Predict the structure.
Amino acid sequence: MLEEQRQRAITAFQEFLFAPLETRLARHENISPESNAIALFEFIAATVPAYQAFLTEHGINPPSVQTYQDFQKLPFITKENYLRRHPLADLCRNGQLEMCDTIAVSSGSTGKPTFWPRFLADELQIATRFEQIFHDSFYADTRRTLAVICFTLGSWVGGMYTTNCCRYLASKGYPITVISPGNNKEEIFRVVQELGPSFEQVVLLGYPPFIKDVIDSGIARGVQWPQYQIKMVFAGEVFSEEWRSLVGERVGSNNPCYDSASLYGTADAGVLGNETPLSICIRRFLADHPEAARALFGESRLPTLVQYDPLSRFFETHEGTLLFSGDNGIPLLRYHISDTGGLIAYDAMLKFLAQWGFDPVTALPQENSIIHLGLKEQSPPQQATERGIHPLPFVYVFGRSHFTVSYFGANIYPENVTVGLEQPVIREWVTGKFVLQVKEDADQNRFLSVVVELAPGVEGSKEKQEAIASSILSQLLRLNSEFANYVPPEYQMPQVALASTSDPEYFPLGVKHRYTRS
């Protein structure tokens, strides 16, 4: 028996069960995140054999790291220079793989499986991210809630991790019941229709394109989504605010800042940050003001924007990419994951928005009059106006930089094209999937090619092609200043091809979709 494990589990579970959410989210105001990061370094240097070897290899004596400036000089770790060079057990504390109680698998961009062990205490730390969403966005402390896990189940990280975290919320006292049909659409329809009426709201948790497919397929077969008071939790892909509005409309959502939220997660270390009502309110403003978004983010595309707890996951930036540090089954220090993005302090975000005449704290559409619970109307819970507003820092994430195409020197992002497909009328014809690439014609003139997947039962036509091309062009000109200024007008109109649902060349079933091709 491992007595240390028993004590870790008891301590972590007690802290999670009895510490109020507000208290946990305010810890960074009294504890220096930088000092906390140094303490994490000292812990890892003392207990993780692989990191001890890594420091020796780089000629670093752990006691020499005393200040945050010293910390910032520590070398990055990556899969190549660290994780794949050591036995799995040596990456864990005390070199003991058995100190973790489960292992997840991620294939990553290379397709080579990576194992990620973790323990109950690691999941409880991440469960607070789910608590933020269920409490602040969904009011799940006062509403009987059915959480439907639509992520793929098995050894992959998303489904089992999410299931566990939602169950921990139920252990804390939230009236949440969890069911995990995974990515089986028929089973999702069955559990929602048979169990949904017993609850005041139903939360669908899954990969954004899959959740949209579930909703659209459900509408086609007569599922009355609005009667279940649907809420949604997403992870794994950047989406536009037009997409959020579209999916929300189809389930009867009338408050986009509170009816859905996205997680910034990774198999490497669980959830790193999460959307909040405040971050969504800000993002929706920026979606309507591309000039402000470009001034803030420096690019002509809208990233995922989340808030994070700097004591749980400590972020840094390096040449426009993100690093993070955090305790985990495999503790990670200054881990470089190649995500393009940046950090914005809470006060700096509000100051920037004020320069554009916007105050999200006052603009945030609070549920301050009537909360709809099925057919029943109630007064909102006390302190409702405080929900979703925490002075936590922001991290924005574009994703991997190689998911773009270059056209006449302009970087064209899938996010720009996505908005064009989410306009009225057009969105009824398509699934939202497409493949963006630059091709050459017989005269070796380059053109922008977009292959678009038609929705089930929709027939292609020249009129649809032209309408889709015009919509994409309109949004490229609106959102992407490089495109508008670099690409000659006669080369701006994209050439659109329409493919049937699940076309084997461009949209094969069972494969994670890629929106660009070289």
The domain at 118-400 is CATH 3.40.50.980 (Rossmann fold). Residues 168 and 275 are 20 Å apart (CA to CA).
